[in-house]
Amino acid sequence: MSRLPLEAMIKVKCSDCRHFREAPYQALRTGCWHPDNLVVTQKEAFLDQQQIPGNHKKINLRGDCKQFEAQPKKLSLLQRLMRLGA
Ligand code: SF4
Predict the structure, then answer these.
(1) How far does residue 62's CA lie from ligand 1's centre (Å)?
(2) What is the mean pLDDT of residues 57-61?
(3) In a domain? residue 72
(4) Pocket of ligand 1 (CB under 6 A)
(5) What's the pLDDT band for 18 if we cut at 50, 70, 90?
(6) 0.85 cut: is pTM over it?
(7) Nearest by Cα to 66 from 2, 12, 5
(8) Residue 54's beta-bridge partner residues?
């Protein structure tokens, strides 16, 4: 029986990653918006809409993307109210 390192057995999902944005609410195009994976990049901020994200299905085909970063944890209702100063 072969033993795999724990890291190799953990699969990551793009939907849990902070670089994944989905159209139409988060971005114009669905895909991976990690700066290294952008297909077309623009330097100027006003040209952001012309950027084309990478194909997240292809990049994370085996679920072992090295650029995966978990999304920030959502605050509870109480924490959000306290931030507002209510
Ligand atoms: S391909 Fe990698 S970096 Fe891009 S959204 Fe998926 S897990 Fe995140």
Answers:
(1) 11
(2) 96
(3) yes
(4) 12, 14, 17, 19-20, 32, 34, 37, 56, 59-60, 65, 67-68
(5) very high
(6) no
(7) 12
(8) 32
